[in-house]
Design a protein that fits this description.
seven-stranded mixed β-sheet; 21% strand; Beta-Lactamase; nine-stranded mixed β-sheet; 16 strands; single chain; alpha/beta; Rossmann fold
């Protein structure tokens, strides 16, 4: 669907009265509540909603005739029903964008301006998902009521919102500090992803995949770093899928995103924890750092922090130092830069760790740092009318892997065991320490696969 005119990206018929759709949706919800339709099977609840919507439209058909108004066509009735169901179980007018598996990012700069970025890097202007700011905020609030396991408010008192959509996409919202409400949706096209698939997508080579697989199975602590949209979370998911099914996994996130707990065939013993914001009285907050500390009392084999964003880093490093084979991601422009980012986060923690103390903690906890990079093709075309270039505009690939070997004062000592040469090729760098090599060799990694170009 991605290689089409922009006007086809949005299915909604602008001729349909949205207020009428809202009234029908509310009446459907009321009737379902009266009938106590509370089954956990969403497909059954959707079917019940469709049946009620059809009944309501049939009942109101006579009102159109009595008032001398044109009755909706069969096609319009169908669109009304689709919008009612999307509003109750999906994400309203966002649904058509989320249904396109070629779309990667959706950026909404207020009700009138929508930008769509496809997986190949091409960016186009989309159609609005709301008629005004009020409707846009109402849409996000409705979604927030059904997302996560705790209240997610979005109003002037709580102008920031982060949450996971039903399909696994990540939504970030902002209001009251911009002229219009601003929404960004990052779609995760690969939830159940493997290192083999990452090889096919060009993120890494078979040799590097073998190395990373051995690191995970040897319970090495790994930080995946990179810039925004570089593929950190996708690689993290692939690494998690290398963890044996017998192990107990605890995942910790600011808002649910990984979805590993849903992959019961791969990880039958997995608990997903989500940070909780304070309530309207300012109490009840459960921070990421709180959850990391709590996870250590839950008999974990692995502690996974989806994204390290601040002071929880100290708790995470302490967990890693206990040998849990933990994994996490962090924003950084290079593998070496990850250490500086960690130090800056540690300064924000209640412990207020100085750099030398943080570096000692890094040396005693992190084993490897993997850097992922996104490369944008020069001259990538953008159009407000249609997609004008179907070529792949972006590539993602591992560019560096560092082994942490120690710390000295204000410096973390590390060896870049995989690096990018002057031609942009990933090659072997410094040799692994003897202890790491011996550990990895027990899980299939050998000197025969190490050395040369990857």
């Amino acid at each position: 669907m991605s290689m089409i005119e922009t006007t086809q990206l949005q299915k909604n018929d602008i001729g349909i009265d949205k207020e009428y759709v809202r009234k029908v949706r509310h009446e459907v919800a009321r009737r379902l509540a009266l009938k106590n339709i509370s089954t956990s099977e969403e497909s059954l609840r959707k079917q019940a909603a469709i049946e009620e919507a059809i009944a309501i439209l049939e009942e109101r058909a006579s009102d159109f005739i009595l008032n001398g108004r044109r009755m909706p066509t069969i096609e319009e009735d169908q669109q009304i029903i689709e919008q009612v169901v999307a509003g109750m179980f999906g994400v309203g007018n966002l649904q058509s964008y989320l249904d396109d598996d070629q779309i990667e990012n959706i950026d909404i700069n207020g009700p009138e301006e929508v930008w769509i970025t496809f997986a190949n890097g091409v960016k186009v202007r989309g159609l609005p998902v709301a008629k005004d700011s009020e409707e846009l905020v109402d849409l996000i609030r409705q979604i927030a009521m059904r997302s996560g396991i705790s209240e997610r408010r979005f109003d002037t008192a709580h102008p920031e919102l982060d949450m996971r959509l039903p399909d696994g996409s990540r939504l970030s919202g902002l209001m009251s500090v911009t002229k219009y409400p601003t929404i960004s949706v990052r779609k995760h096209r690969y939830v159940d992803v493997t290192l083999e698939q990452e090889i096919e997508m060009g993120l890494l080579s078979p040799q590097v995949a073998l190395f990373l697989s051995a690191c995970v199975r040897a319970s090495k602590n790994i930080i995946v770093c990179g810039r925004t949209n570089s593929g950190k979370t996708t690689l993290l998911r692939a690494l998690i899928n290398e963890i044996p099914a017998r192990e107990r996994i605890i995942t910790i996130e600011q808002s649910f995103e990984l979805g590993i707990d849903q992959l019961k065939d791969r990880h039958p013993d997995c608990i997903a924890l989500e940070a909780r914001l304070p309530n309207t009285e300012g109490v009840g907050e459960v921070s990421m750092a709180d959850l990391v500390r709590r996870s250590l009392r839950m008999n974990p084999d692995r502690v996974i922090v989806g994204e390290t964003l601040g002071p929880e880093i100290v708790a995470l490093l302490n967990a890693m130092s206990q040998g849990f084979g933990s994994l996490s991601t962090i924003h950084s422009d290079s593998s070496a830069g990850a250490f500086r980012r960690i130090s800056s986060y540690a300064l924000q923690a209640v412990e207020r760790l100085p750099m030398d103390a943080t570096n000692l903690l890094i040396a005693g906890s992190i084993n490897f740092v993997v850097h992922v990079e996104l490369t944008q093709k020069v001259g990538a075309e953008v159009s407000s009318e249609k997609i004008v270039n179907q070529e792949k505009q972006v590539t993602r690939h591992v560019t560096s892997i560092r082994e942490v070997v120690g710390a000295e004062g204000n410096m973390v000592i590390s060896n870049e065991v995989f690096k990018t040469d002057e031609f942009g090729k990933l090659i072997s760098g410094a040799p692994l320490t003897t202890s790491s090599y011996n550990d990895l060799s027990e899980f299939g990694y050998s000197a025969k696969t190490y050395g040369g170009e990857f």
